[in-house]
Amino acid sequence: MAEFSWLPRSPLEHVLVVGAYGARDVAPGISLTEIRNFDLIQIMARRGKGAELANAAKARFGMAAPEVPKAVSASDVTLIWSGPDQFLVLSKGGKHAMDILSQAFSQFASLSDQSHARALISVSGMKACAMLAKLSSLDLHPASFPIGAAAATSIDHTSVNLWRGSDLPDGQAVFNLLVFATFAESLWRTMLDAAAEYGVDIGYSEELG
Amino acid sequence: MRIVCPFCGERELGEFTYLGDAKPVRPSAGGSEHDVFDYLYLRDNVAGAMSEHWYHGGGCRAWLKITRNTLTHEISSVEPAAGVGAAKVGG
């Protein structure tokens, strides 16, 4: 009988090389940061239970779950719209993990633990918008995709959940991308190609942005 | 071609998959062989406005019912297909 190791590992560990990438004669225009070790739960309302789920979500998180393509954040959790009557719960440290949320929501909703099924990539920097514009058909200008805007869309034929986080203190835009773990390598390489001309600073973090 | 998803907004065609005619209705369990054959195999070749099912697989993964003119590709209506979302559509 083979011995298995069930230690969680990053889906990007074979391609993520910390440090500089691409153009070196300029200050990096893009930061690509993989966020590791998060809790991610998909919650979908059962048929006819949308109102009950909305009430339960408000009681649980202290804010309404988004009913339109937006992401809303409290101090310890982010709720990301992912489709009609469904949203993702992104958090850290187990406070909103599967065993806890399933008790709160299983009457009204189907829950699915996606913690190890997705990679979370944060794209920031003065050229973040320009880089993503090469890959996405969405208009990511702040006028049409402001802070808190979210989208379920495709980048390079790969489904992603994309949302805009708060700007960094120096005004740089932040985009967060959730991608299926097995597609993460492919998307990572695609983004490196798109970002290389701007100079990239690659890293990973254990902290949600 | 762009399609305005009622959930996501305007998106490029590449995010959607075409299923086909939205008109055929599955016959009841006691339906005649003729009705079942018609439902399974016979399709109208419409030149003009046609009701179609599309799937927003590259986005919110909702099924949509779209009225499209097959001559001009003009889309005159997009609505969620029956049963999309657990509870409600558009409030």
TrEMBL record, chain A:
Coiled-coil ranges from the UniProt annotation: none
Pfam families in alphabetical order: SoxG (PF04268)
The protein's name: Sarcosine oxidase subunit gamma
Residue stretches spanning the membrane: none
Top-level taxonomy: Bacteria, Pseudomonadati, Pseudomonadota, Alphaproteobacteria, Hyphomicrobiales
TrEMBL record, chain B:
GO molecular function, one term: sarcosine oxidase activity
Superkingdom of origin: Bacteria
InterPro entries: SoxD (IPR006279), SoxD_sf (IPR038561)
GO biological process, alphabetically ordered: tetrahydrofolate metabolic process
Protein's UniProt name: Sarcosine oxidase subunit delta
The species this protein was found in: Mesorhizobium temperatum
